[in-house]
Amino acid sequence: MGGGWVKRVVVGFEIRKGKKGGGWVKRVRVRKAEMLKQHRELSMFVRRTIKTHEEARIRLSKTYQSFVAAASSHRELGFIEKDVRNYITRKVQNIFEEDNAKEFRKHLVRMKEKNQNFFFELNLEGDHCIKHAFWADAKSRAAFDYFGDMVSFDTTYNTNRYNLVLGSFVGVNHHSQSTLLGCVMMKNEDIQSFKWLFEC
């Protein structure tokens, strides 16, 4: 490296390392100190905008770029893209999960009101997140009475949004066709979850 300087930029600082008089010296110059983690913050307006964009399924990078465009430069924002990503992960997805769990419960209750032969069991985590859910409509229950001699249970599918395992009970009718007998969603594929399911 000789006596030259090596420049390394870190968020908030510019660090230069080099030899001076035989020893290594480090120069640190503060650059945009307000971008340090303790100075970054998402305003209420920004949080609402993130939530709206997430509901509209607008990509995170597009959301961040809209803030940059509005502020004329990313240096004028009081936050970085990682802050938006962290907010979505921690807050918005938890809100959606809670809201959607409530809506899912309402939907199952409505199905039961429409047809008393509709069956469901729902186990929520802390009253707001789905832990286990099983349901079978009237047609599936009737099919089980006729074609329940051989039942296959498959949990190879994951739902993308909530990382829930989606399982299905499938039978074979008298035409050798697959027929759906029931569905399940589970947070984990552990012994407790399967015990809950088979005791429904």
UniProtKB/TrEMBL annotation:
This protein's name: Protein FAR1-RELATED SEQUENCE 5-like
Gene: LOC107488601
InterPro entries: MULE_transposase_dom
Domain MULE transposase: 151-199
One Pfam family recorded for the sequence: MULE
Species whose genome carries this gene: Arachis duranensis
